[in-house]
Write a structure and sequence with these properties.
By secondary structure, this protein is an alpha+beta fold. It is 34% helix and 15% strand. The strands form seven sheets. Strands 8-7-6-3-9 form a five-stranded mixed sheet.
């Protein structure tokens, strides 16, 4: 593979073993190029991104607003992870290019907008063939400043102009709100304040209600995710390891989407008792369960988030079936509670009531369910560690900076998309659990749209009932 860059003293992304271009090579390389092919047509949904910026402007009419995206993250030394833009920046601009910055400057009746953009190097410079991070012959064609303005529908300047421009705006207006945590250099340009947190909160709460386009994108992500799960079920008979399962699913994510929406969890046997098992380095055994928690992220960056727990050998054991059907009953109760006007926590309360009483019935809960359910106790959490819902959208755990009163302690509203995912995790070393049940972990997770009348289970095509899951595994 081609190694990625380190920056030399000239600021170019270079490696110590790179040659310096000779004057003769520079002259030869900067001549004789035709028109490059690059898509500068306006992005789909430009008016939608513009409407979001208008809503942001109305919320903070007198303030300078600074919303950066992130740079590539180092994976190891001079190699980088695949780039994924900052959620809020993308939500407002549709731009997927690293190291960019949206600045909104107040004026009468709204804000002026500027997209600071790292455009392409001209072919008259050495950078386009010597810079390993940004040179076109290394990483592909890049929009120039004029093309970026055309594509994203925002007046555009070179990113190098941003520090001086923001410093001038801070001096002129004083009140500057910065979305922090994406670019340390941008963070340093204005003093941190409570206003920054208000900006982050508002941008999260804007996303609590999904519009028709967002719901369509989530449906598309879910459809691709279903095909990925089908791929796994088809391959499970010959699969020998969790890593194989991960690879099969992730192939579908890259074929049909941008990537996986989060690290795929392929947890077999006792690994299923680790909520966010990511090592995926275990073997598959026919008498184990496989907990697969995975989602495809679309090219528009919306992600599904689905979990199914299936018997590797094709049939549930009696103990596995007991736990699975208890989780399924808890999920059914949660789905019935997922209606507009209900508390966000209502599905969780309904599910945990079923879980506690079922664990008591199976002889697993070492006290009465009523005692375990008391708010000062919540003893059932030893076996079911997490609440059953989170918001879903551009982030798998979407709207994470919203106020608790708008999210956790708020009410469900039409247009919200959330997960319903009860789970029971009976740790292999938990002496309160009868031995035949130890090491069983089950989670069932569906993605749900709150409607004006109730809820629409967007993932209804995924088998849930035990008989349906076993048939899913037996299909050729």
């Amino acid at each position: 593979m081609k190694l990625q860059p380190k920056a030399d003293q000239s600021g170019l992304a270079r490696n110590v073993y790179d040659d310096e271009p000779t004057p003769q090579l520079l002259e030869f390389m900067t001549q004789g190029w035709g028109r490059r092919e690059i898509d500068s047509t306006p992005i789909d949904g430009g008016p939608r991104f513009r409407a979001r910026r208008v809503a942001l402007s109305r919320r903070f009419p007198s303030d300078v607003l600074v919303i950066p995206t992130n740079a590539e993250r180092v994976r190891s030394n001079d190699t980088h992870f695949r780039f994924r833009p900052g959620t809020e920046f993308y939500y407002l601009t549709g731009c997927t290019v690293p190291r960019c910055l949206l600045v909104m400057t107040p004026r009468d009746g709204g804000h002026d907008e500027t997209l600071y953009f790292e455009g392409s190097f001209g072919r008259e410079t050495a950078q386009f063939f010597t810079d390993r991070m940004k040179g076109e012959l290394w990483v592909g064609p890049r929009l120039n400043i004029e093309e970026a303005a055309q594509r994203y529908g925002i007046p555009t300047r070179h990113a190098a102009d941003a520090p001086a421009s923001i410093a001038s705006l801070v001096e002129r207006f004083g009140t500057t709100r910065v979305l922090r945590g994406f670019d340390p250099a941008v963070d340093a340009l204005a003093r941190e304040s409570a206003g920054d947190r208000e900006l982050a909160t508002f941008l999260s709460e804007m996303r609590l209600i999904k519009d028709d386009y967002e719901i369509a994108q989530l449906r598309a992500a879910i459809a691709s995710t279903k095909r990925g799960f089908d791929d796994v079920m088809h391959a499970l008979g010959s699969a020998k390891s969790e890593r194989y399962v991960e690879g099969v699913f992730n192939l579908r994510a890259r074929l049909e989407g941008n990537d996986v929406g989060y690290g795929t969890i392929a947890a077999s046997g006792r690994h299923a008792c680790v909520l966010h098992w990511k090592d995926n380095d275990g073997a598959l055994h026919g008498d184990d369960l496989l907990l697969l928690d995975a989602g495809v992220e679309t090219h528009s960056l919306y992600t599904a988030d689905v979990t199914r727990t299936v018997p590797v050998g094709g049939r549930f054991s009696p103990e596995q079936r007991n736990i699975y059907e208890l989780v399924l009953a808890a999920q059914d109760a949660a789905l019935r509670a997922c209606v507009p006007g209900s508390d966000f926590l209502a599905p969780n309360e309904a599910a945990m009531n079923v879980v506690a009483r079922g664990l008591e019935r199976l002889g697993i809960l070492p006290m009465a369910a009523d005692e375990a359910l008391r708010s000062e106790n919540k003893f059932y959490r030893r076996y079911s560690l997490h609440n059953v819902s989170h918001m879903l959208g551009l982030d798998v755990h979407d709207c994470a900076k919203a106020r608790q009163e708008a999210y956790k302690y708020g009410r469900l509203q039409p247009g919200m998309v959330l997960t319903i995912e009860p789970g029971i995790y009976l740790q292999p070393d938990d002496l309160t659990v009868p031995e035949p049940y130890r090491g069983i972990g089950v989670r069932i997770e569906d993605d749900v749209l709150v409607t004006k009348d109730g809820c629409d289970v967007l993932t209804a095509a995924f088998p849930r009932a035990t008989a349906d899951v076993e048939r899913w595994l037996s299909r050729p």
